[in-house]
Amino acid sequence: SVTWCCHAHLYKYAILLIIYSPVAYKRLTSNITLLAVASESSSPILHSGRQSPPHRFFSTVTMSSSMNVATMQPLTFSRRLVPSAASRGLSSSVTVAGLSGRSSAYAPSFRSIKCVSVSPEASIVTDTKKLADASKSTKLIPVYRCIFSDQLTPVLAYRCLVKEDDREAPSFLFESVEPGSQMSSVGRYSVVGAQPAMEIVAKENKVIVMDHTNESMTEEYVEDPMEIPRKISESWNPDPQLVQDLPDAFCGGWVGFFSYDTVRYVEKRKLPFSKAPEDDRNLPDMHLGLYDDVVVFDHVEKKAYVIHWIRLDGSIPYEKAHSDGMQHLEHLVAKLHDIEPPKLSAGNVNLQTRQFGPALENSNVTCEEYKEAVVKAKEHILAGDIFQIVLSQRFERRTFADPFEVYRALRVVNPSPYMGYLQARGCIMVASSPEILTKVKQNKIVNRPLAGTSKRGKTEVEDKRLEKELLENEKQCAEHIMLVDLGRNDVGKVAKYGSVKVEKLMNIERYSHVMHISSTVTGELQDDLTCWDTLRAALPVGTVSGAPKVKAMELIDELEPTRRGPYSGGFGGVSFTGDMDIALALRTIVFPTASQYNTMYSYKDANKRREWVAYLQAGAGVVADSDPEDEHRECQNKAAGLARAIDLAESAFVKK
After folding, report:
1. How far apart are CA 630 and CA 637, in angstroms?
2. Does 569 participate in catalysis according to the annotation?
3. In which family does this protein belong, per the annotation (predicted)?
4. Is the distance from CB of 471 to CB of 618 less than 8 angstroms?
5. What's the helix, strand, coil split of the chain in %, to 5?
6. What stretch of H or E contains 409?
């Protein structure tokens, strides 16, 4: 017997209990499309309903109750060996975005995994033919399952895919709240990815490409490492029909970070690496992972898409590649439905804690050195060399809190439009950025300058008063307009003539603790350019450099003692479909993975913890009338906001 029902919105109250044979099942499915809902404890129930579009129907992936998911062979990092469907007791049901097919199997006793499946069996032959036809014109085919997310969160899904002690495995978790939502609107989508098929790591002009599918690695020196992912992506052209049913979010592609110093690939003459400040941490300048396995959570519809991209390179027949891809997808779903899911520490949320938080006094510059740099910058402003410059300083703090625990705390302390936990080569980034570096969606470029800041009020009336004062502040507004002009210039470099627009000008966006002045600049990408060109044009945005940008960056090289690294660069994704969404790396904590200290302790029966070094970097915009002491204090205050997440993580999880 099997549990069946129709769409909830069709016949919510039509309940019919049927125990049927395989023959009855075949007769039934020849006339009606059924919605299967997984149930491990209820009696067999059947609801009938009229046929609807294939992607709207739910089915089950079944697993023998005697199977132990925990003993399954894990995905190897070479991504070659995947247990067969038969060996795991799983059916080979699979959804291809826009297309569908299902094969059935019978077993005496099954454990159900709750998943979305597809359409009637009559469409299998037609769909297979469509897939084969599509494979002739594209090298990418997405297959996916849609599962209930009521027992799975993005944080738990990440832990299912990346174990707690595997802190150097390239992986990511991206979340968001809607800009200006006043904490009331969680972003619709969260995305989790692990085990990239390929990695690109660049340090200055040295590039290492690791192909985990073919188990190969190449090393070379190139003039512009950012050209390598562009060239690898050139031959990808997913069929629009195959992606139309995927969620409107990042569903696979490149994910990683671009450091501030990647601008030196663009401005080779004026900003060479030879004139850059000291590189005291030796972090990569660029790290990208090619993720063809992702999990996308839709928080509105309460479901998650488990997506695998089949990349066709001609080395094996399409039928074999498709069969392997389906088995790979089934194994990925099984990992998310582990019988013994990983345990996460509950923690104790105390936002008032200062139990462990020391003052941020350990910086790469002293207070006097920073104020002296501000004075020198003002001299250049008065001389007419620049109008504004952003001078930053980097604070250091040691903690026994794990970086992922810090991220869990940061989600509470400072929810932002671009929340991210990114494990990359050389470092882990924990981010809560409010700002776009650059975004391209269906050839529309978006630049969103965010400058001009005020604290939040305790009441709506006080919020309104502070908002009015912010918009009447001549200095804040002048700085914002200057950055809007820089944004228009950046977009104009790669947009079609006459398409650049300021869609929103000087709106107020409210966040958990502050409010910002925001504007939106858009343009239509030129036909002969790609999203990679928009990234090159935007790096780095004026909010972290100054104006004019290149001259301000030349002075930053002179006035800041160490390289910025990931700070004020960007992190995010470039999708298989050619869209790009890169956040500005502000309000970001960097944990170098090579900087784990030997200091360890254990508390009662708790696992031993290793001490980490956390870098918190912040800057202040210097203009002609800036006060050096005020700018220094602004840097401290911004970094202290991030440090609250470490405070919370220590008080909640460390139990010192």
Report:
1. 10
2. no
3. Belongs to the anthranilate synthase component I family.
4. no
5. 30, 30, 40
6. helix 403-413
Confidence of residue 235 (pLDDT cuts 50, 70, 90): confident
Q: What is the tens place of the pLDDT at every residue in 499-518?
A: 999 999 999 988 767 788 99
Whether residue 548 contacts residue 386, with contact meaning beta carbons closer than 8 Å, is answered with yes
Flag whether 468 is in a domain: yes
| pTM of the predicted protein model | 0.78
Assess whether 158 carries a catalytic annotation.
Answer: no
Q: What is the mean pLDDT of the chain?
A: 78
Q: Which of these is catalytic: 380, 408, 425, 587?
A: 587
The answer to whether residues 360 and 632 touch, using CB atoms and an 8 Å cutoff, is no
- The helix/strand/coil state of 5 is strand
Angle between helices 318-336 and 124-135 (to 10 degrees): 110
3-state SS class at 438: strand
DSSP string, 316-343: S-HHHHHHHHHHHHHHHHHHHT-SSPPP
Structural domain harbouring 378:
367-654
- Residue 587 a catalytic site member: yes
Looking at the domain assignment, is residue 94 inside a domain?
A: no
Catalytic residue among 55, 516, 563, 609: 516
367-382 and 628-649 are packed helices; what angle lies between their axes, rounded to 10 degrees?
Answer: 130
Is 530 inside any structural domain? yes
408: helix, strand or coil: helix
Candidates 567, 573, 609, 641; catalytic one: 567
| 576 has pLDDT over 80 | yes
Average pLDDT over residues 390-396: 96
Closest of 372, 471, 423 to residue 163, by C-alpha: 423
With a CB cutoff of 8 Å and minimum separation 6, the contacts of 144 are 95, 96, 97, 246, 305, 306, 307, 308, 329
Q: Which of the following is catalytic: 89, 565, 621, 641? A: 621
List beta partners, residue 111: 63
- The domain tally of the chain equals 1
One-letter amino acid of 348: N
Which residues have C-beta within 8 Å of that of residue 525, sequence separation ≥ 6?
Answer: 440, 443, 444, 445, 494, 495, 496, 531, 533, 534
Q: Say which range, 190-199, 288-297, 545-554, 631-640, has the weakest mean pLDDT.
A: 631-640
Residue 240 three-state SS: helix
In the residue annotation, 516 being an active-site residue is answered as yes
- What was the pLDDT predicted at 339? 56
Active site residue 621: yes
End-to-end CA distance of the chain: 53
Active-site residue (options: 95, 522, 534, 543): 543
Instruction: Please calculate the CA angle 252-121-292 and round it to the nearest 5 degrees.
Output: 10
Q: What is the CATH number of the domain that holds 568?
A: 3.60.120.10
- The rounded distance, in Å, linking the Cα atoms of 498 and 24 is 64
Provide the pLDDT for residue 67: 34
144's tokens: 């996916």
Please report the pLDDT score of residue 352 as a whole number: 58
CA 593 to chain CA mean position, Å: 19
304 contacts 146 by C-beta, under 8 angstroms: yes
Instruction: State the greatest distance between any 2 C-alpha atoms of the chain, in Å, as a whole number.
Output: 88
Count Cα atoms within 13 angstroms, Cβ side, for 559. Answer: 26
437 touches 541 (CB < 8 A): yes
Nearest Cα residue to 590 out of 345, 395, 391, 361: 395
- Cβ-contact 472, 490 below 8 angstroms: no
Helix or strand or coil: residue 472? Answer: coil
Q: Would you say residue 470 lies in a domain?
A: yes
How many CB atoms are located within 10 Å of the residue 638 CB? 20
